[in-house]
Amino acid sequence: MKTDHPIYLFLSAGAEAFRVLTGGRELAGAYRFCSLTIKGLERRLDGVFEPDGHTGPVYVVEFQGQSSEKAWYNLLTKIGLYGEEHPRRNVIGIGVFLREQDVPAFPSWANHAGAPLQQVALRRVLPDWLAREPDNPYVAVFAPLLIDDEDVLRTRAAVYWRTVQEAPIDAAVRDILAQVLEFWFFERFRGLTAKEIWAMLNLVTPIQETKAYQSIFAEGKAEGETEGEAKGRAESLKRLLVRRFGPLPAWAAQRIDAAPVPQLDAWLDAIFEAASVEELIGDDVG
Question: Among 1.10.1200, 3.20.20, 3.40.1350, 1.10.10, what is the CATH number of 1-127?
Answer without folding.
Answer: 3.40.1350
